[in-house]
Amino acid sequence: MPAARFYVAAPLAAEIVGTSFRLPDDVAHHAVRVLRLPLGAPIRLFDGRGGEYRAALDRIDRHGATARIDRFDPVEREWAGAPTLAIALVATDPMDAAVRKAVELGVAAIAPVVAARSQGAPAGTRAEKRLLHWRSIAIAACEQCGRNRVPLIAPPVPLDEWLRSFAAAQGPGVIAGPGATRSLASFAAGSAPKLVVVGPEGGFTEAEMARAVGRGLVPVHLGPRVLRADTAAVAALAILAAVCGDAR
Question: Between 204 and which of 89, 108, 208, 228 could a Cys-Cys bridge form, CB atoms 3.0 to 4.6 Å apart?
Fold first, then answer.
């Protein structure tokens, strides 16, 4: 059975190798109370800066837990050339699913945008809490799938504001639209997109699509069927992984 993996928010240093490291309270709780790992269980720790530390639980008591750090493994499981996913806000559960699956599939970053048909666009304190929630989902997805670098999730911004700044992204960008005449697979076979844009339930409005195309985004379709927003995000990334190399 693969060793359980845990993200540690504080940067880890090479000096901890060969020592007994006190696990942060949230990590200790997850390892001991949730997963019920026994003494001596192998675990992996990572801080999001690349690589992971191989360790084993060497103390468990009412105060928490410690792990003996055996060595640092510089393993990388990132997708070279991974795209950024810009996704219009949708309802809570589909949005959570899209974030989780996008991270598992290797996305470089996620940019939530607020479109005309977006659902559940939060504001103020609610927006901050939702962003923290998405970031916690990204961390959990990294723990599960083996990634050692946590992709950035940007705060939500209005679509037009995001369109004015997206040109700073390196490489071509595509926007999913059921009426597009070119498939994402055929586009990617000639030029790997560095940016994938997916609309909300009901899609982008014609005016939004026109503005996106005016900023240089290329309309593409994902097949003959109309997909839910969260499904479209997953399908687009899976297509790119297959065509552009990550899944080979």
Answer: 208
